Amino acid sequence: MLILANVRTRWSSLLGTFVAVLVGVALITTTLVIYDSAKPEVQPRYAGTAALALPRQAVDADGSPEDRMPWGSSEAEPLVSGLDQVPGVAHAVVDRSFYAQAIENGKPVSDEGALESGHGWGSARTAPYALVSGRAPRTADEVVVDRDLRAAVGKALTVNITEGRRQFTVVGTVDGPGYYFSEAFAARQQPGVGAIALVTDKGADTAAVVAAAKKVLGDKGDVLSGDARAEPQPQYIAHKRFLGVQLISAMALLGLFTTVFVVASMLVLATGMRRREIGLLRTIGAAPHQVKRMILGEAAVVGLLGSIAGCVVGVAAAPLLRNILQGLAVAPPDMQVTVAAWPLLTGCAVGIGVSVIGAWTAGRKAARVAPIEALLDSRAANKGMGRGRWIAGLAVLGTGVLLAVGTTTSSADNRINMAIFATMTLIVAAALLTPVFLAPVGRFLTAPFQRGGSAAPVLIRAELVANPRRAASLAAPVIAAVGFAVLLSGMVETMRVAYPAGEALKVAGQTIVTADGTPGNTDEVVTANPVGKAALPTRAFVLKDAKNAKDIRDSAQDANAGDATVLDVLGSRDPRWSKPGAAVLGEHIAKDLGLRKNQKVPVRFTDGATVILRVGSVLPDDPARGDFVVARDLVRAHDPAALTDDIFVPGSAKASAAVPGTALHDAAAYALADYETDAKLTDSLAMMLIVIAVGYSVIAVANSMAMAAHGRRRDFAVMKSAGGTVRQLLLVSVGETCLVIVIGAALGILVTLPPLAGMASGLSQSTSSDVSLHLSGGTLSTAVAGTLVAAVLAGLAVTAKTLRRQSA
After folding, report:
1. Distance of CA 623 to CAs 503, 520, 583, 687, 756, Å?
2. Helix-helix angle 468-506:235-272, to 10 degrees
3. Cα R_g (the chain), whole angstroms
4. Whether the Cβ atoms of residue 692 and residue 317 lie closer than 8 Å to each other
5. Smallest Cα–Cα separation from 477: which of 436, 434, 439?
6. Residue among 694, 704, 702 at smallest CA distance from 748
7. DSSP label at 625?
8. How many CB atoms are closer than 10 A to CB 370?
9. What average pLDDT is seen over the chain?
């Protein structure tokens, strides 16, 4: 009862914590709702299937499940025959997907899914897509297309496929997307079988069909039904979902950290201002554990109320976040917001947990309040640094320094995360150690104003010296806001300079042929540019457990022998790497696979064929060369659907962009264009995170300042009785606020400099160019101004209201 009574009567002092929890839970709930809504769904072209039979799944070099290993034609034939005979199955359709894109008026028709738009005619049954006009394709030069393409039946249509532009006769149109060729043509484009779709008779028992299909497949694959059919996803949708998940994960992580940080600092401030009240409770017999339980109980109640309100706000804000993600092209098309129970329960659990964890330190301090403190001012215990705070602050500071140093030596993939973790750690260290800096810095900054004879600088300095912990709690949200704003904007600005410069240096003197409106370069483009690097990427499966010649032969004959490791394989036309029957490996992948020079290894390609390769060389890792490189002709022979990456033509040769869907770039333009591909998303992500960090901290600063001003009403009464005017007291309040904000902003900037400097140093090493630290003055000014204005307005509003009440 006491807990509820305290929450009811002290709501004004707990309002800041309530708002902080509400905002944090709203952010976390929104991101979780979007994450749940963005989960893979069954693709429309599989809507007419009861189940999908898929090959078994391989793992990557780290042991994580990855691609499924396609069946070869000889493996798939008996499976298709067996599945076709399952009772209730009308059709067992071999579903193939490969690159196909129409060319109109000399330009590729825009199509995000072009990489997988080509199919055999049988795949039209899986949706099903019905013929609107014409007939099914019968020969290799016939095609059925989407009616929205507005291609007339009987007319010629230029379709870009892996080999290049080719003329087809449109023999029909369907009411769905895609290009549908004869089954024989589709089998030549993609010999391997990645899926067999089961279309059942009307009224068939799906469970019985699935059970029978599993018996037919045995250990050769899996049968997926219901929502599990969502596993096969177009690459462009999977990529968008991956980017979206990264973005909302960063938002949730930042929101969680900021919530814990802000709530903890506000509860410490609120509890510190109640020491006299707690002393009275101790005087009338309250035990320390009861006091601690009271503080934790109040936090739990406020956390529960804030979480409930946060869940409501989070659900309401989910459509807005979805629209933002779709505007950034990092959300699946036509994604609908669906609200499940687990995001709401998780948000509530986080809100309550954060409140209780944040109150833990405050509760411990409250439990140590002695009964005699009922006779003391609540601020008497706010002086100096305790031993525990010193130890914690220095320990966290040391950890932050180590992480900042680690930013210099970390890999490109981990450098950003390392810088963020280092900054988070240093922000916590700065918040813990802030009382150490406040008094000397306050004396230094107010010294020039003392010569004017005004009492205001003396009062401001005395307040900071007398109550450093209170001032530190007020500065904590400012440190977080400015720190994250400087870090994120500085990272973007530094990378904007570093990456284009590094890439331009790598390809200096070359002309780069890039895809323009297509997902990659066709063989026609490669033929038009016969000189230069033209890597042909594919996915291949290295068969392990081949210890001797017999094992190698057995693995080549039976892909089920041993686990398969899937990896990226590059086909190269560089004479140094394109030796027939040989592979060139990077040191890292060779170690992961347990391979060494001259060792033979069976490699299975996407057409289901297994080739025994000899490890010709093991060289230092080089992203420009690739980790597993073979002859280009070998990749083309086993993956007819693969498209070529960008082509790098040396300055001594002439590059050609005569083929539609290609563009030419010099080194600088290519580097800038390559960076701009990701720069929009990076800039948007950074801006969203900055808005979250600064906006959240502005709310916390305003609440903290209002709470502090309300708690000093007795001070204002004393100063007013001593002759202070309302104007003078308001100026003192503004001066104290500005000084605390300035100190907090300075600490926020300082804690980000080591991680940013480490990141710049690491970028210099990785790009082989001189990279210096770059900060965004506009973002820094906005963050400082936003927190300053919010704090001043909140402090003025509460101070003015308090003074008016005292005058009444």
Report:
1. 12, 19, 16, 30, 25
2. 160
3. 33
4. no
5. 434
6. 694
7. T
8. 14
9. 84
pLDDT of the residue at 589: 93
| Bridge partners for 71 per DSSP | 193
pLDDT at 149: 94
Rounded distance, CA 72 to CA 190, Å? 10
Residue partners of 207: CB distance under 8 A and separation at least 6:
none
d(CA 798, CA 786): 18
Contact present, 603 and 567 (Cβ < 8 Å): no
Stretch (H or E) spanning 456: helix 456-466
What sign for the dihedral angle of Cα 180, 183, 188, 190?
positive
Question: What CA–CA distances, in Å, run from 688 to 252, 556, 684, 693, 699?
Answer: 12, 51, 6, 9, 16
Structure tokens at 710: 């309300």
Q: What share of the chain is helix, strand, coil (3-state, %, to 5)?
A: 60, 15, 25
Q: Which token pair is 353? A: 């947990």
Amino acid at residue number 540: A
pLDDT of 281 strictly over 50: yes
Look up residue 441 and give its two tokens.
């810095």
The one-letter amino acid code at 704 reads: S
Residue spans of the domains in the chain: they are: 1-40+236-381, 44-58+67-235, 435-502+671-808, 511-670
**What are the DSSP calls for 522-582, one per residue?**
-HHHHHH--SSEE-EEEEEEEE----SHHHHHHHHH-TTSS-EEEEEEEEE--TTT--TTE
Within 13 Å, how many C-alpha atoms sit on residue 764's CB side?
12
- Can you read off the two tokens belonging to residue 150? 């507005």
Judge residue 197's burial from the number of C-beta atoms within 10 Å of its C-beta, 0-12 exposed, 13-18 middle, 19 or more buried.
buried
Looking at the chain, the number of H-run helices and the number of E-run strands are 21, 24
Q: Is the pLDDT of residue 52 over 90?
A: yes
Predicted confidence (pLDDT) per residue in 765-780, tens digit: 766 667 777 788 888 8
Q: What tokens were used for 589? A: 């992948």
For the beta carbon of residue 499, count every other beta carbon within 10 angstroms. Answer: 23
Query: What sign has the CA pseudo-torsion 314, 317, 321, 322?
Result: positive
Instruction: Pull the structure tokens for residue 773.
Output: 């630290």
More confident site: 557 or 700: 700
